[in-house]
Design a protein that fits this description.
Blueprint: H1 2-30, H2 33-38, H3 53-58, E1 68-70, E2 75-90, H4 93-109, E3 115-120, E4 123-131, H5 134-147, E5 156-165, E6 176-179
Parallel strand pairs: 3-6
Antiparallel strand pairs: 1-2, 2-4, 2-5, 3-4
Length: 186
């Protein structure tokens, strides 16, 4: 009797698992832009799309996972890009004060550009900007070198994880401290 009950429970569990995994996929496929574009309608042309199945699975999905972030004032995507590195030193109270002063001075001149003070292991760093291209970062670096010799003594362009706003900010969140987080620069 117990064997029959276990087999029955196993059978129903299996059916339930199949329903849970298949139904959302089929519902998603019905509403896919790919299916809409490729459906045949009388009197209209035919569209054929040749692509990898993995790409088709991603079409129509919003950015999900670890790359999409929120900080209370904006939604942003983490991506690879460039920042202008202004300062680094072994972390101490003096170096933290100097980093904050550099950040403050920078934000007074460029309030619309994000600045990032990071403490990673024994190092404290000040980096500014979220640039998609090296050229964009270079424009800021050159401008800083002309105007602020004291800030830009160490100025250099570095590869880093940057923030790309997905939704417009109602408030700017400039100048934040990220402690214990490696910036991802290599």
């Amino acid at each position: 009797m117990k064997k029959i009950l276990y087999k029955s429970l196993f059978g129903w569990s299996f059916v339930l698992l199949i329903c849970i995994t298949v139904l959302p996929v089929s519902a998603q496929e019905e509403n896919s832009i790919i299916n809409y574009l490729t459906q045949e309608n009388k009197g209209e042309g035919t569209i054929r799309i040749y692509q990898n199945d993995r790409i088709a699975a991603l079409v129509g999905k919003k950015g999900e996972g670890k790359d999409l972030n929120e900080d209370g004032t904006s939604t942003y995507l983490r991506a690879k890009g460039y920042r202008v590195h202004l300062y680094s030193e072994i972390a101490s109270k003096e170096s933290m004060n100097k980093a904050k002063n550099i950040e403050r001075k920078f934000l007074e001149a460029y309030p619309e550009i994000g600045s990032y003070v990071t403490v990673s292991g024994p190092k404290i760093r000040v980096r500014v900007g979220d640039f998609k291209t090296w050229e964009e970062a270079n424009l800021l670096k050159q401008e800083l070198r002309k105007k602020y010799r004291d800030i830009s003594a160490e100025a250099m362009i570095v590869k880093d994880d940057i923030r790309l706003d997905v939704e417009p900010n109602e408030q700017q969140n400039n100048g934040r401290t990220e402690e214990g987080e490696d910036s991802g620069t290599k």
